[in-house]
Amino acid sequence: MATILVVDDELGIRALLSEILSDEGHTIELAENATQARAARERMRPDLVLLDIWMPDVDGVTLLKEWGGAGLLTMPVIMMSGHGTIDTAVEATKFGAIAFLEKPITLQKLLRAVEQALVKTAPPRPAPAVVGLPSYTRTEPGNLPVAASHGMALSNHLPVSNALASEQSFELDRPLREARDAFEKSYFEFHLAKENGSMTRVAEKTGLERTHLYRKLKQLGVDLSRNKRGSGG
Predict the structure, then answer these.
(1) Is 123 helix (H, G, I), strand (E, B) or coil?
(2) Cβ atoms of 71 and 102 closer than 8 Å
(3) Cα distances (Å, whole numbers) of residue 113 to 42, 47, 119
(4) Tally of CB atoms within 10 A around 32
(5) CA nearest to 197, candidates 16, 25, 26
(6) Alpha carbons 59 and 142: distance in angstroms, whole number
(7) HEC readout, 186-202
(8) pLDDT, tens digit (0-9, with 9 covering 90-100), for 59-81
(9) I need a surface site. Which of 94, 175, 206, 222 has the fewest CB within 10 A?
(10) Are strands 48-52 and 99-102 parallel, antiparallel or unpaired?
């Protein structure tokens, strides 16, 4: 996942964004002013910066201009403001910002903006090589290339993860509470695997408030570390 620098002079905003984005598997660095932001950007080289416009020492647009003029705008920057105007958003975009979020920032808009910013700046991935298959693509009349046809045949036999199996059997000859707990544990493990460990998306999908969801998973003994997205790179 990505390394994200959150720059905002409000402690509550920093804490909220950090919690949400950490749940998504990102690594979060926090800064409360331009001085800390400069140091953090130099130290960690973030993949993305969420930058507040109105800060006490140097405002966000000025810092954005500074980075752009010094050739340091090597990462996408999303501007944030609770008092922004269209002119402010246009100015920020002109100086290199990739998006503008108006406070209070909704969960959906935040995740969508972050996802889009990271996708736009991600390097293109090379096509995966098929290990153990011939590299030639000799074409015979009326047939697909030989290597391609092998690849298509293999794709029909790829194993399906047990964690994502949408149908499971349960032992019903047991006390109701035990049967219910077993079902609920499988239910939440299925959604955690499907959403790559994102607590935010699982909460939305299951209709539970996030704190309640954490408590429920802990009660059922669900292993959260196994599904955490950041563990696989």
Answers:
(1) coil
(2) no
(3) 24, 14, 10
(4) 19
(5) 25
(6) 65
(7) HHHHHHHHHCCCCHHHH
(8) 999 999 999 999 999 999 999 99
(9) 175
(10) unpaired
Give, as one character, the DSSP assignment of residue 2.
-
The three-state DSSP-derived secondary structure of 130-199 is CCCCCCCCCCCCCCCCHHHHHHHHHHCCCCCCHHHCCCCCCCCCCCHHHHHHHHHHHHHHHHHHHCCCCH
Query: How many helices (H) and strands (E) are present in the chain, helices listed first?
Result: 9, 5
Give pLDDT tens digits for 132-153. 444 444 444 444 343 333 333 3
Q: Concatenated DSSP letters for 54-76?
A: --SSS-HHHHHHHHHHTT---S-
Model pTM? 0.56
Looking at the chain, the whole-number percentage of residues with pLDDT higher than 90 is 39
Residue 27, SS3 per DSSP: strand
